[in-house]
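Schema walkthrough. Field components (list of strings):
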Amino acid sequence: MPYVVTEDCIKCKYMDCVETCPVSCFYEGQNMLVIHPDECIDCAACEPTCPIEAIVSDDTAAGAKWAELNRKYSAFWPRIVEKGAVPEDAKQWEKTPNKFATHFSAQAGASHVAYSQPGRSDRSKSQDTARDGDSDFA
Ligand code: SF4
Ligand code: SF4
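Field assembly_structure (string):
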């Protein structure tokens, strides 16, 4: 059962989680990260590193709700392996509820350290991705 990133990450994006992952399966959106469910080895190393508890197992209610979003966007956002610059206003968004509905961005992140991966060669397509299917997760 893989771990997933929930909507609590949106606009916080502290990225403390990425460097703890032994298989580098975090992917970066403009204002949140997701975990690739087929790459996650369920080690739980990342879960306690998130200061806002935005990482949960997909066998929890919160995890199940956001599992499809993690699967969808990890397929075309770029991999992130190093912590980037934290948003200056991250703190003020920590307690904001329902961030997906009003603040989710489908655009790829820019602070990532990307590298090529077999079968996932053209990751730049994600830069202009529309928010199709977003209602699936709200
Ligand atoms: S540590 Fe938590 S808030 Fe920060 S990027 Fe990772 S999941 Fe998001
Ligand atoms: S549970 Fe382990 S493998 Fe999965 S994202 Fe977290 S650190 Fe990476």
